[in-house]
Design brief:
single chain; about 475 residues; alpha/beta; TIM Barrel; Immunoglobulin-like; 2 domains; seven-stranded parallel β-sheet; five-stranded antiparallel β-sheet; 15 helices; 17 strands; disordered N terminus; EC 3.2.1.51; Glyco_hydro_29; alpha-L-fucosidase
């Protein structure tokens, strides 16, 4: 949360470590940084639009589509890779994929209410779901495609999910892929790194699996289709809070999708919306230096490290780590390698302590049911947040530098400054040491028990109980002592 951190506890900020110099990444020679118009929005207007998102800190991501019915297998055989990519990884032609997958996709009544209630129980503040993934199957009633939920099920699933989320007080986000393996005009062979289920010429010399490609592929037609489907989403469902684009890479980004026109169209209908920057090359993993080189507010409002929490956050940039509970985004019956609740809570704390949001994924089954392992972990996260949410929501990044025993979040309130010490491991001497000037009082956030605080030179020493109250994360609140 850049604006909060800049305002928070000035005397503490002076003690923070020196910023790490960014090492510029070298872009591919054929891919210059896209030229875009500077945003016309003032910093104050930008901060106001981003405020709810910065304060939310925790969102629920949902990957759900036809791939959910495959559950990680094709024709009975396990397919390596993430489950939502099964069509690509098994190299299934679009017609065959639709023939086998459509009969398996049978959303049960009330699935959307179950998702929304679960997100609320987990303590998430917003829900982002796949309106369309790379397979091209749209969950809304689309006038420009019959490969959609309305034609397949007679239902507008986007409407069901949006309305259920709003009923639980959640902000609503739509994930939308800019690539579409089903659409005939999708020009995947015109770009060296665009994915498609059929082998790319660079992968297989002399491939003849798509002999009509040259007659069908048309970038302008595909762009028009992409824009038309997005227009349907932003015009029909009331206020949309997040638009989460996916899939650009060097060589196919920005004006490949007519990105500036697309974003302007979205903002015309949804002036308060928040968008990520994946219409352009974006931070994929733990590479904050690369992100800072390429991040431009004209590309989007925030960046999205995937399956990683950058070691030092992404200084000066709004960011959101998107992560799975196991190893796949879409549902796979084969992937039971679940992260523990402890790891998930600590990931949330780690992200908040570095000024970012966590978008945690679930992959429902074809009928919309959420795997029980996900349900259990989300409810346990919610229990922890009900006791300790004050130390996560509306907090800013750690202003003091790294500590060996856990993480620190910070908050400025009407009553004054607050520091939250997240204790993962109890120090052997029973004291937490941090370089915080001034005098402070300390208490356990859950229960309120007072703790002893003493000054030891330029360090503050906070005594912790012999046994930590919470083995996941015991939170201690520090408040400036009244003189």
């Amino acid at each position: 949360m850049p604006s909060l951190r800049a305002a928070l506890i000035p005397c503490l900020l002076a003690l923070a470590g020196a910023a790490h110099a960014a090492t510029p990444a070298t872009p591919a020679a054929a891919v210059p940084k896209p030229a875009v118009a500077a945003p016309t929005e003032s910093q104050a207007a930008f901060d106001a639009r981003m405020r709810w998102w910065r304060e939310a800190r925790f969102g629920l991501f949902v990957h759900w589509g036809l791939y959910s019915g495959a559950a990680g297998r094709w024709n009975g055989e396990p397919v390596k890779g993430s489950a939502e990519w099964i069509q690509r990884n098994a190299h299934v032609p679009t017609d065959e994929y639709a023939r086998q997958m459509l009969p398996l996709f049978k959303p049960k009544p009330g699935f959307a209410r179950e998702w929304a209630k679960l997100a609320k129980q987990a303590g998430a503040k917003y829900l982002v779901f796949t309106s369309k993934h790379h397979e091209g199957f749209a969950l809304h009633d689309s006038a420009v495609s019959d490969f959609d939920a309305k034609d397949a099920t007679g239902r507008d699933l986007v409407r069901e999910i949006v309305e259920a989320a709003r009923a639980e007080g959640l902000k609503v986000g739509l994930y939308h892929s800019v690539i579409d393996w089903h659409h005939p005009a999708y020009p995947y062979r015109d770009f060296a790194r665009l994915e498609h289920p059929l082998p790319h010429p660079l992968e297989k010399a002399g491939d003849t699996q798509d002999p009509d490609y040259a007659k069908r592929a048309n970038l302008r037609q595909y762009q028009d289709f992409l824009h038309a489907q997005v227009r349907e989403l932003v015009e029909r469902y009331g206020p949309i809070d997040v638009l989460w684009w996916d899939y650009s890479n060097p060589g196919a980004e920005g004006e490949t999708w007519r990105a500036q026109e697309l974003m302007a169209m979205v903002r015309k209908d949804q002036p308060g919306i928040v968008m990520n920057n994946r219409l352009y090359r974006s931070l994929g993993y733990d590479d904050p230096q690369g992100s800072l080189q390429w991040f431009d507010r004209a590309h989007g409002d925030f960046t999205t490290p995937e399956q990683a929490i950058p070691a030092r956050g992404v200084p000066g940039v709004d960011w959101e780590a998107c992560m799975t509970m196991n190893g796949t985004w879409g549902y796979s019956a084969l992937d039971t390698n679940w992260k523990s609740t402890r790891e998930l809570v600590r990931n949330l704390v780690d992200t908040a302590s570095k000024g970012g949001n966590l978008l945690l994924n679930i992959g429902p089954m074809a009928d919309g049911s959420v795997p029980q392992a996900s349900v259990e972990r989300l409810r346990q996260m919610g229990q922890w947040l009900r006791r300790n949410g004050e130390s996560i929501y509306a907090t800013g990044a750690n202003p003091l530098g790294e500590v060996a025993w856990g993480r620190i979040t910070a908050k400025r309130t009407a009553a004054g400054e607050r520091l939250y010490l997240h204790v993962f491991e109890r120090p052997s001497d029973g004291e937490l040491r941090l370089r915080a000037p001034g005098q402070w009082t300390a208490r356990l956030l859950d229960g309120g028990a007072a703790l002893r605080v003493r000054r030891d030179g330029d360090e503050l020493a906070v005594a912790v109980p012999q046994t930590l109250a919470d083995s996941i994360d015991t939170v201690i609140e520090l408040v400036p002592a009244k003189s």
